[in-house]
Amino acid sequence: MATVTAQMVKELREMTLAGMSDCKKALDAAEGDMDKAVVILREKGLASAAKKASRAASEGVVSTVVDNNNLGFVFEVNCETDFVTKNDGFQAFVSNLHNIISSAKPADLDALLATNYDASGNVKDAATALVAQIGENITVRRFARVGSGKNFVTSYVHGGGKIGVVVELAGSGIEAHLNNQGLIELGKDVALQAAAMKPQFLNEQEIPAETIKQEEEIIRNKFLQQGKPEAALAKIVPSSIKTWFKEICLVDQLFVKDDSKSVAAYVSEVGKKLGINDLKVTSFIRLELGQGVEKKAEDFAAEVAATVAAAAKG
């Protein structure tokens, strides 16, 4: 049987917000498999949908660039400590990346890293040089481009660079409205929605069939454990899946500024007022600082260790 460590319990708690003792029991039952432990907690109704990315964190900044309101970029630069983000050299590097991205409009991360930075080399070379200067690992880790140059694109950055969002809206004749204040305000509101409500997909069509199947199985097992008869699940499971869609799909979420309607409905309504009868959100990218980067254990691990020890005695 795999050994369940305090760090594993800490990570599972951060992923699911379940109690530490429940996390310990789930990990024991799953023999240390984190994904199986999440499923066990969810089937028991002790955790919300897994947020794998929240298992890890790192320092640095997420930032965005929008060009002519029709092309957007979001990127993440990581470092090891928050202190470095206030370093003049680090801030100058991020500022230069803004200018480089705006000018070169790279298609992906590899293209960005290969883009000329200055006379001494490309962006990757500049990051390496900054490591030697600051004495800490500096990485341009993620980069995404949104928009075809024909639709409306805007962005929002939260918490001084903790979360960055770029959204794209499309509709007939939208190119004539790119500087319309009403459209700009709407785009900002949708980007704010994505930052705050953490959607995982644009719409249900983007969700992989296997992901939906796994969710259906979790819901089924959850209600069976609650004593619901098998015959009732034919209605319960589809209804629960529809509720799940409204939680994880941006356009299906209730709009934060008017929860009487969905994001899609609100966008369509505003579009008609602006003279864009088929306005809709066509894409978005949300980056949260440190997603997927392992971070050294903090003192909190000691608290978890004490709980694990107490549970073992019990």
Automatic annotation (TrEMBL):
<feature type="domain" description="Translation elongation factor EFTs/EF1B dimerisation">
    <location>
        <begin position="73"/>
        <end position="291"/>
    </location>
</feature>
<feature type="region of interest" description="Involved in Mg(2+) ion dislocation from EF-Tu">
    <location>
        <begin position="81"/>
        <end position="84"/>
    </location>
</feature>
<comment type="function">
    <text>Associates with the EF-Tu.GDP complex and induces the exchange of GDP to GTP. It remains bound to the aminoacyl-tRNA.EF-Tu.GTP complex up to the GTP hydrolysis stage on the ribosome.</text>
</comment>
<dbReference type="GO" id="GO:0003746">
    <property type="term" value="F:translation elongation factor activity"/>
</dbReference>
<keyword id="KW-0963">Cytoplasm</keyword>
<keyword id="KW-0648">Protein biosynthesis</keyword>
<comment type="similarity">
    <text>Belongs to the EF-Ts family.</text>
</comment>
<dbReference type="InterPro" id="IPR018101">
    <property type="entry name" value="Transl_elong_Ts_CS"/>
</dbReference>
<dbReference type="GO" id="GO:0005737">
    <property type="term" value="C:cytoplasm"/>
</dbReference>
<keyword id="KW-0251">Elongation factor</keyword>
<dbReference type="InterPro" id="IPR014039">
    <property type="entry name" value="Transl_elong_EFTs/EF1B_dimer"/>
</dbReference>
<dbReference type="InterPro" id="IPR036402">
    <property type="entry name" value="EF-Ts_dimer_sf"/>
</dbReference>
<protein>
    <recommendedName>
        <fullName>Elongation factor Ts</fullName>
    </recommendedName>
</protein>
<dbReference type="Pfam" id="PF00889">
    <property type="entry name" value="EF_TS"/>
</dbReference>
<dbReference type="InterPro" id="IPR001816">
    <property type="entry name" value="Transl_elong_EFTs/EF1B"/>
</dbReference>
<dbReference type="InterPro" id="IPR009060">
    <property type="entry name" value="UBA-like_sf"/>
</dbReference>
